[in-house]
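Example record

One chain of 660 residues, shown exactly as stored in the release files.
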Amino acid sequence: MIKMAKSGFASWQVVTGVCIALGIGYSAIKFLRLNEQGEVSREMRSELSTGNDAVHPFGVLDYIVFSSMLVISAATGFYHAFSGGGQKTTAKFLMADRSMRSLPVAISILASFMSAISILGIPAEVFIHGAQYWTMVFSFLFVIPITAWVFIPVFHGLGLTSAYEYLHRRFNMCVRFCGSILFLIQTSFYMAIVLYAPALALEVVTQFEVRKTVLITGIICTVYTSLGGIKAVIWTDVFQFFVLFGALVTVIVMGTIHAGGLAYVWQYNSEHGHTNFFEFTVSPTARLSFWSLVIGGTFNSLSLWAVSQTAVQRFLTAKTNKEAAKSVWYNLPGNLIMFSMVCFIGMVLFAFYNNNLTELNTAINSTANGSLSDTDNGIKPHYTPAYQSSDQILVYFVSLEFGVVPGIQGLFVACIFAGTLSTVASGLNALATVTFVDIIKPWRAHRNHGNQSTQSDAQDTILSKVLTFVYGAVCIGLAFVSSHIGTLVKSVNSVFGTVGGPLLGVFTIGILSKRANAGGAFIGLVAGFLLAIWITIGAMVNKDPTTGDVLPHAFALYRLSFMWYSCVSFLATVSVGLLASEIIRCSLPEERLKTVDPSLLATFLRPKGWQPPSTTMYSEDNHLQLSDQVTHSLLQHSDDDGQLLIQDDSDHDVAENGLK
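Predicted structure tokens for this chain:
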């Protein structure tokens, strides 16, 4: 019966995918025919880009394509909610029984980080400020190897469920609790931005009301994540990635043709200073530079890829450490390709709207009235639409220029929703996991004085689902109050810099320093967070209401580029944390006598010849298989009152019957 259900579900997905593909194919043929007839040639395209900014309404095929994406996403959640016995254990609901292969995990993480913010915000960034933001791709040459070689082997080898369990085992419960709270705050506000900002952009152009867009996205995410668990999140992300990829390729191909060809796009950007890839200014107050994008971008991305529960949880669902590492490495080419695609779309937009006002009056260039004069090469100029925010420019472009082609608007809006769904779903699952594992379980242990909890694993599974529902409602509520967030790229980097830097710092001193201790880690975490908050609030208070930039006479730290926030707070956390640790070691003799379990350190810092114990023990209650090393760790920490799913570095599968 299960095989038949799987076969039927897969067949239905294939049929729906074929229908969408046929719709895209029909749209492409229609577009090419229009080009052949000269209706949208470059010489005549001003007929489509007149000054009335009249966006095209959705057609039947648009609704079919858009609705198909939503239906498949919801159906995937329902399928995983009931197939294979359903989501009846915390091991299955939160960790997919640690049974996932590397490729779907890699695609899932790539899809969730290629959010609607990236799809709308990065092209707008390139359109306004030039292609220098593309150089951030070089940061992934550092982010991916560091994540794969330093962090994931430690987390996966310990058999963690939450990344912040590591902070308890390495330091103490206080550091773990602070790290968990910071993650909950960071992710909740990030989810609000992800829900609200794309909805605002869509409302202005497509007339989709913000509240309806937020509600539809939030409710669908909450429902299929609550029912289907992490496995539904991963497989839905895989489907949504192909929607994203297909839509972006379609926009690039049709947009490049419409703008005048690849050579013209490059030539126009080059002639107007928009191929400014390498800006080597060393000033930390410069809005963007090669150094801030590569170095600062590395720290921003590491806080997401290496230590954030949103990514780490999915890496830990992989069957083995090797599978987890492969899922990280697959994202190196994936990120380079996807990031380059969205940056190139920004160059296409700049070449299409080829009027001088675009670069002179960036975010306030209203549509010109009256007749348009020819440029030197005889090509009609196209003035940018009267957008309220630069993040709306891509939505305007697709609607104004391709809205006459059936299905294209539906595909693009499906792309925006897919990016939002994939990001929010993974965030909700991570929020529920951290709340349950890092807050509720330790509280139970404290309440029961370290004794076994009376709640069953089935009850904990229901609790995890309820937590997902609650966080879904919270994120929807926060989205409705997120009306003053600035541009998407700047807002997101500021959020992750404020919280991500200190979290990355405390994990780093734990994994890379044998001398760091709990007191030093806590002091460093607080110091880094307070510094980041001080800079962020100072920049907000001293912001120019017209341009959105920090006032030139403001304090130097307030004028710091938003790309440096994470790096600065990371350095503060590490330096203060290590210094405080040394002071504590000198003051307390017992601290100098403590040793660090080698399994808590990076693999290259472990004693030569050290191997994780291969012997195991079994629980008489539910036949859990635990390594001696993890058993020792569990005995040391009273909050781990239940059974954990464990898998050691030898890559042998280990049974798990629950996370309780």
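Notes: The chain is about 65% helix and 0% strand.
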